[in-house]
Amino acid sequence: MGDEAIDRYLNGGVDQLYAPRLLPDMDKAVGILEEKISQGAPIRIVGDYDIDGVCSTCILFLGLRRLGNTKNLGLKALIQANQLDPGKISVYHIGFVTGPCLNAGGRLQTAKLALALLLAKDQKEAWELAAELKALNDQRKDMTQQGVDEAAAQVEQLYMNDKVLVIFLPDCHESLAGIVAGSIRERYNKPVFVLTHSEEGAKGSGRSIEAYHMFHGLVEVQDLLSKFGGHPMAAGFSLPLEHVEEFRRRLNENARLTEEDFIPKVWIDIAQPFENVGEELIGELERLEPFGQGNEKPQFALKDLFIRSARVMGKNRNVVKLMLVNERGTALDGVVFTDGDLFLEEMGDKK
Known about the structure:
There is one protein chain. By secondary structure, the protein is an alpha+beta fold. The chain has three domains: 11-138, no CATH class; 160-260, Diaminopimelate Epimerase, Chain A, domain 1 (Roll), CATH 3.10.310.30; 268-347, no CATH class. Helices cover 44% and strands 16% of the residues. The chain has twelve helices and ten strands. The chain has helices spanning 3-11, 26-39, 51-64, 73-81, 91-108, 112-119, 123-159, 177-188, 214-219, 244-254, 279-286, 340-349; strands at residues 165-168, 192-198, 201-207, 227-231, 234-239, 270-271, 300-301, 306-313, 319-325, 331-337. The strands form three sheets. Strands 1-2-3-5-4 form a five-stranded mixed beta sheet. The longest helix is centred in the middle third of the chain and has 37 residues, at 123-159. InterPro entries: DHH_sf, DHHA1_dom, RecJ_OB, SSDNA_exonuclease_RecJ.
């Protein structure tokens, strides 16, 4: 990446966005819209039920209505419902606090709730919808944790020696299968397929590791599947219930994975002394956001640290607050998002 590309990322503006007409058939779409508008005909907007679909549907709706940059009552209500400071909203809050609330409606009930919130023109309506979506997200978190616990129990009891984990959770909400699969993948660093009951028999979602091409894995057993799709790191599929055990057996037979593939790999960008950690560094990192595929979050590391104290927090005991001390005696607070009790157990074993 050259200096020009870096400057474009850090200091780019709206004028640097790609032209909309680069999209295939954009001229046809514009022509259809112009015709319908001139006829006074209604225009239907069809969007996906997840946060991407809800937000893009809202943006398109507002664009067609020429509402411009009106302050959004729904988002303000959602920020308040989550007890956030409006002046300190970060990428983290969007990705892990307000975003999941918008997603929860589509996952557990209907995406119309999130869309109605984003389009709300009445403050009372916005507050009520925000409270409902937050409650749904809290419910979603509880249901997800229950699914993760049940999945982990199955793995520990039945599938620890499997290279590819196939877990059937009949009572898990199908929209949560991917989240559960991701959590189990992180815990065991193995490819994971989580299946739930559906009208078609069983419906599943998978999350993979770098060494396993998930879509290719499904192609090899496609005779067992009703339908499937995906890419190297994730997939979705459905199959008859009677094929589940055969699906598990053949995926594991076909898997060309070694024990080394299951060892988690962490790529460290640079060693970062405690003394360098401060508001200036945090500000510089914030300029690089949002992080994700193609712009990975920087990873810093430091050796020879001592854990002075550790305390498990959170309703689901999945947060550990640490007091870390380096070899020069400099202390720094730290947080680990993991199974808190397991972390303390492993920490005790290493003392």
